[in-house]
Amino acid sequence: MSTAPGRTSHAKAILDPELYSKLANTSVLLVGAGGIGCELLKNIVLTGFGKITVLDLDTIDISNLNRQFLFKKKDVKQPKALVAAQTAAPFNPNVRIIPIHDNIKEPQYDIHWYQQFDMVLNALDNLDARRHVNKMCMAAQVPLVESGTAGYLGQVQPLLKDTTECFDCIPKPTPKTFPVCTIRSTPSQPIHCIVWSKSYLMGQLFGEDEDAIEELDDAEKQGENSQEIETLRKEAQAFKTVRQALRNKNANDAAKLVFQKVFNADIKNLLIMADMWRSRSPPIPLDYDAILDGTFKAPTHTKANGTAAPNMNANGNAVASGSGTNTNGSAASSTSTSANNNGATTSLKDQRTLTLKDNLELFISSTDRLAERLRNGEETISFDKDDDDTLDFVTASSNLRSYAYGIEGKTRWEVKEMAGNIIPAIATTNAIIAGLIVLQALHVLKKDHTKLRNVYLQFKPAVPLSAIRLSQANPECGVCRDTYAPLLCDPARTTLGEVVKGVMGEEWGEREVSVYEDKRVLSDPDWEDNFESTLESLSVTRGKFLSIVDEEGEWATISLAIANLPPNYPRPLPVENEDGVIDLAPTPKKPRIEPAASVLMRRLEERQSPSKRRRLEADGLVVMDGPDDVLDSGEVAGVVGVDQGGASEVIVIDDD
Ligand SMILES: Nc1ncnc2c1ncn2[C@@H]1O[C@H](COP(=O)(O)OP(=O)(O)OP(=O)(O)O)[C@@H](O)[C@H]1O
Ligand SMILES: [Zn+2]
């Protein structure tokens, strides 16, 4: 394909020539090739970012096609990263796109790997992956542009270590939770029954064989009604029998057994506790055979004050609300959810109001299908909005429960939205956000930090965008306030003691420190049993962080990012010992380059001065596990980044 002048003329005209030529040598990592990712990949390819690595763990689903326009129907089930790269590559032949079909959390994407990029652009859909990439970017000192959309709302946030706050500086709200007893005994809204079905009932029947007793003990400690807890304990015991029936090839009435236990016996047990139903409407035990043969006559649901419960029609059927309101109370557009592209027939079927008998029949058929899957070797099955068997089961069982409690029913469509926490995905929102990401990325590239903005797309037609100056880091942040250093070592041979003593140097014995990997304590001032253990035996391996925390709080936490040794690192030779066993010989010693701790020590002494401290944090420290580890200059540059100012220093752990 020819490089016609027209292809680049717009980008050249908009960007100044210097920036445009810089783009060609810019290497970016794009994490996520979904809704935002597809738009963004197109943008950065057309803008002319020279080298783009696009990483996504997923394959293409038919429901992605309405907005992830780099994919076509023929690509369904293919890796997103691969197809996105193939489709976008011809947009600009001057750009090199490297696709990776993988989880960004895999250990090979270590600090060293991140440092090859000039910046990282996140186009993810979950908190866990976002927090992971944030931490890696903070450790590797690589600028990150974070983004997200929810319906008509969106946000773009540039995050630079020591310049702005990081993604974790402000704790994120945790998803809404419900008290255990509301879910287990006293639901009052459809969502309570849906959560019960997908998180509790599915787990009890099709999940791992766990003891639910602990959760109940906790609930009791938190002051929940002890008689009620006792009833729930009995309920948990009875689950064992139905679990066995579901897995037994000869049991053909497993669905009925589950029904009898959950919608009849358990409810009868709860009714015994008269106290519980003084101020609320008691549930109704359901009758399997009577519902199937159409003779089931439910007693009228009455509240304590004698009024009829809402949303029950004359035939005793639960009535779907049809309101299209999701769990958060926000309106869910029926035309824009990712689930809405299975064709009109499915949509109609899914949006149909289900009668009590419909729900029971759906309950029987879905329980049978799930039981069959268990009998065919699936060990556990959990809810997945795109797994029809589980969606049918959750729809039917939550509606049956709603019926028993006099709560309105929901259509399969509504249950999918509520149980799957589906927030409408709007292609235009993704496109606007992807455009804003590029603008922020260009400021990052120009190092024009005063122009960086936290940009919000809001549901205000008069002011759709608001751009806010970036906040400073939260001094208490446990992620971006740490002092990071890459630790290049062989975790199978390096011991915890070597690392800690090496880093502490002369301060060892003077200063009391504790050592952590994530939330695990590996040593504290009075407990050093792990010092002789190798990092590998302590599961401190590539991609993880070893944190050394000063008990006095005078030193910033030192977080060592475990990375691979460079390819030129001398490997130990296998030697035979006197018993004829092949041992790995220790690496031969060479003179130490510098006493292990003095470099770090000097810098930590300087940490009272903010500017010096920033310098320390900006420097990379290469901590090696033996005195032979002389890196060539290229490797050193590769480890700490080339434009961080000043030569990096190599710390050698003294293992004498
Ligand atoms: N840990 C991870 N590693 C790599 N890619 C990830 C990771 N977590 C999420 N992603 C990817 O981020 C992308 C987010 O895109 P998007 O929000 O459009 O989600 P989706 O899964 O495509 O759509 P939907 O959730 O609406 O069905 C997805 O393609 C997803 O595979
Ligand atoms: Zn932070």
TrEMBL record:
<dbReference type="GO" id="GO:0005737">
    <property type="term" value="C:cytoplasm"/>
</dbReference>
<keyword id="KW-0479">Metal-binding</keyword>
<feature type="region of interest" description="Disordered">
    <location>
        <begin position="302"/>
        <end position="347"/>
    </location>
</feature>
<feature type="binding site">
    <location>
        <position position="166"/>
    </location>
    <ligand>
        <name>Zn(2+)</name>
    </ligand>
</feature>
<dbReference type="InterPro" id="IPR045886">
    <property type="entry name" value="ThiF/MoeB/HesA"/>
</dbReference>
<keyword id="KW-0547">Nucleotide-binding</keyword>
<feature type="domain" description="THIF-type NAD/FAD binding fold">
    <location>
        <begin position="15"/>
        <end position="478"/>
    </location>
</feature>
<comment type="similarity">
    <text>Belongs to the ubiquitin-activating E1 family.</text>
</comment>
<protein>
    <recommendedName>
        <fullName>Ubiquitin-activating enzyme E1-like</fullName>
    </recommendedName>
</protein>
<dbReference type="Pfam" id="PF10585">
    <property type="entry name" value="UBA_E1_SCCH"/>
</dbReference>
<dbReference type="InterPro" id="IPR019572">
    <property type="entry name" value="UBA_E1_SCCH"/>
</dbReference>
<comment type="pathway">
    <text>Protein modification; protein sumoylation.</text>
</comment>
<dbReference type="InterPro" id="IPR023318">
    <property type="entry name" value="Ub_act_enz_dom_a_sf"/>
</dbReference>
<dbReference type="GO" id="GO:0005524">
    <property type="term" value="F:ATP binding"/>
</dbReference>
<keyword id="KW-0067">ATP-binding</keyword>
<feature type="binding site">
    <location>
        <position position="169"/>
    </location>
    <ligand>
        <name>Zn(2+)</name>
    </ligand>
</feature>
<dbReference type="GO" id="GO:0019948">
    <property type="term" value="F:SUMO activating enzyme activity"/>
</dbReference>
<feature type="binding site">
    <location>
        <position position="80"/>
    </location>
    <ligand>
        <name>ATP</name>
    </ligand>
</feature>
<feature type="binding site">
    <location>
        <position position="480"/>
    </location>
    <ligand>
        <name>Zn(2+)</name>
    </ligand>
</feature>
<feature type="binding site">
    <location>
        <begin position="125"/>
        <end position="130"/>
    </location>
    <ligand>
        <name>ATP</name>
    </ligand>
</feature>
<dbReference type="InterPro" id="IPR000594">
    <property type="entry name" value="ThiF_NAD_FAD-bd"/>
</dbReference>
<keyword id="KW-0833">Ubl conjugation pathway</keyword>
<feature type="domain" description="Ubiquitin-activating enzyme SCCH">
    <location>
        <begin position="335"/>
        <end position="416"/>
    </location>
</feature>
<dbReference type="GO" id="GO:0016925">
    <property type="term" value="P:protein sumoylation"/>
</dbReference>
<dbReference type="InterPro" id="IPR035985">
    <property type="entry name" value="Ubiquitin-activating_enz"/>
</dbReference>
<feature type="binding site">
    <location>
        <position position="56"/>
    </location>
    <ligand>
        <name>ATP</name>
    </ligand>
</feature>
<dbReference type="InterPro" id="IPR030661">
    <property type="entry name" value="Uba2"/>
</dbReference>
<feature type="binding site">
    <location>
        <begin position="32"/>
        <end position="37"/>
    </location>
    <ligand>
        <name>ATP</name>
    </ligand>
</feature>
<dbReference type="InterPro" id="IPR033127">
    <property type="entry name" value="UBQ-activ_enz_E1_Cys_AS"/>
</dbReference>
<keyword id="KW-0862">Zinc</keyword>
<feature type="binding site">
    <location>
        <position position="477"/>
    </location>
    <ligand>
        <name>Zn(2+)</name>
    </ligand>
</feature>
<feature type="active site" description="Glycyl thioester intermediate">
    <location>
        <position position="181"/>
    </location>
</feature>
<feature type="binding site">
    <location>
        <begin position="64"/>
        <end position="67"/>
    </location>
    <ligand>
        <name>ATP</name>
    </ligand>
</feature>
<dbReference type="Pfam" id="PF00899">
    <property type="entry name" value="ThiF"/>
</dbReference>
<feature type="compositionally biased region" description="Polar residues">
    <location>
        <begin position="302"/>
        <end position="318"/>
    </location>
</feature>
<dbReference type="GO" id="GO:0031510">
    <property type="term" value="C:SUMO activating enzyme complex"/>
</dbReference>
<dbReference type="InterPro" id="IPR042449">
    <property type="entry name" value="Ub-E1_IAD_1"/>
</dbReference>
<comment type="subunit">
    <text>Heterodimer.</text>
</comment>
<dbReference type="GO" id="GO:0046872">
    <property type="term" value="F:metal ion binding"/>
</dbReference>
<feature type="compositionally biased region" description="Low complexity">
    <location>
        <begin position="320"/>
        <end position="347"/>
    </location>
</feature>
<feature type="domain" description="Ubiquitin-activating enzyme SCCH">
    <location>
        <begin position="187"/>
        <end position="272"/>
    </location>
</feature>
